[in-house]
Amino acid sequence: MSLALVTAPLEERFAAFALWLVPLALVAFAVTVWGAFRAGWLTRLATLLVGVGALWFGLLAGTGAYFAAWQAEPDPPAEAFSDGGSNVFVLLFGWLPALALLGGLRIVIALARRVRR
């Protein structure tokens, strides 16, 4: 079996995952950056939560699209039809990496603004 036959379906699965994750990650970053420059802690918190929700949904939808693309391949393995454990994991804990990433971005922006003053 050639390497091209193995990597082509994998690239299609990652493309299906990225189709959801990348646009929603860009929205999450944009909302978080925009909110970091607003006055009032409530606005900053709300934009951070909206960003976390967008990134969380991107992870969840991307994981679902990945498995759908895997199951659509010719002769998919049994692992492609798993019990959905990865979807449940992302549903329950996907907000953690989103909050860490966007919260870290928010802290970096706050520190940069403080140093600039």
Quick synopsis:
By secondary structure, the chain is an all-alpha fold. The chain has helices at residues 3-36, 41-71, 85-93, 95-116. Mean pLDDT is 88; it is low at 1-6.
Describe the structure.
It is a single chain. This protein is 82% helix and 0% strand. The protein is built from four helices and no strands. The chain has helices spanning 3-36, 41-71, 85-93, 95-116. The model is unreliable at 1-6 (pLDDT under 50).
Summarize this structure as a short list of keywords or feature phrases:
117 residues, disordered N terminus, mainly alpha
Shape: elongated
Strand content: under 5%
Give the distance, in angstroms, between the N- and C-terminal Cα atoms.
61 Å
Helix content: over 70%
Name the poorly predicted regions: 1-6
Q: Quote the average pLDDT.
A: 88
Backbone structural class? mainly alpha
Quickly count the domains.
1
| DSSP strand count | 0
Number of helices: 4
Write down the secondary-structure element order.
Answer: HHHH
List strands and helices in order, with pairings.
Elements: H1 3-36, H2 41-71, H3 85-93, H4 95-116
Helix pairs in contact: 1-2, 1-4, 2-3, 2-4
